[in-house]
Fold this sequence. Notes:
The structure is a single chain. The chain is mostly helical. The protein has helices spanning 2-20, 23-32, 46-53, 55-85, 95-115, 128-138, 140-157, 160-177, 182-198, 200-208, 219-225. The protein is globular and about 55 Å long.
Amino acid sequence: MVVWLSLCGVALVVAYLLGSFPTGYIAGKWLQGIDIREVGSGSTGATNVLRTLGKGPGAFVLVIDCLKGVLAIALIYWLFSFASGQSLIPSTVDIPIWQPWMITLSGLCAILGHSKSIFLGFSGGKSVATSLGILLAMNWQVGLATAGIFAVFIAIFRIVSLSSIAGAIAVPILMAVLRQPLPSILFGVAGGLYVILRHRTNIERLLAGMEPKIGQKLATEEAADG
C-alpha cells in the first residue's frame, strides 16, 4: 500500500508541475522580452497574451494551457493502466472508486499549478484554458458544452471574463445533468468556484461597467497610454 500511495502522490505532484508550466510567461519573454505579469491584467493566461502579444501567441498559449489539463488527466489513466500491469495496486484498492477521485485531485492540482506556478513565485493565470482541457479529458461532452457556452457569451457580450465565469457556473450543472460520478461533480463545484474567485477583479470591473471587451485595453492601460 505504501508503494501505491507513493505513486499516487508523485502523480499529483507531476499534475501540479504540468499546470505550473508558464506558457504565457515564456511567450512574453521569447517574443518581446517582457514579463507578461507586468503588463495588461498581469495574468499569464491566453487573454492577456492576446491583448499584449497578438492573436497568434494568444492562440498558441490557449492550446498549450489546454493541453496541460489534458495531460494531467491522461497521467492518471496511464498510472492505473501501468500499475495494474505491474501488479502495484493493492487488492484492497477499489479501482472504480479510486480512479475518479484521483482524476479529480489531479485536475485540481493542475488548476492550482496554473494559477500558482512554482516557476513564477506562485503567480500565474486564471486557469480557464487548463480547466477546459481537464473537462475535455474527463468527459468530452461536458468539455464541449462548456466551450459552447463560453462561445455563446463571447459572441453576445465580447467579454472574456464574463464568458469564463458563465462556463465555470455551468460545469457542475452539466456534470449533474449528464450523470457524472460524484468526484466529477465535486470537481465542477470546486474548480468552478476557484476560477470565479480568480476573476474577482474582473467581477468588480464588470459591476462597474469597466471590463474591456475583446480588442479593447484595460482602463489602466489607456490611462498609461495617455
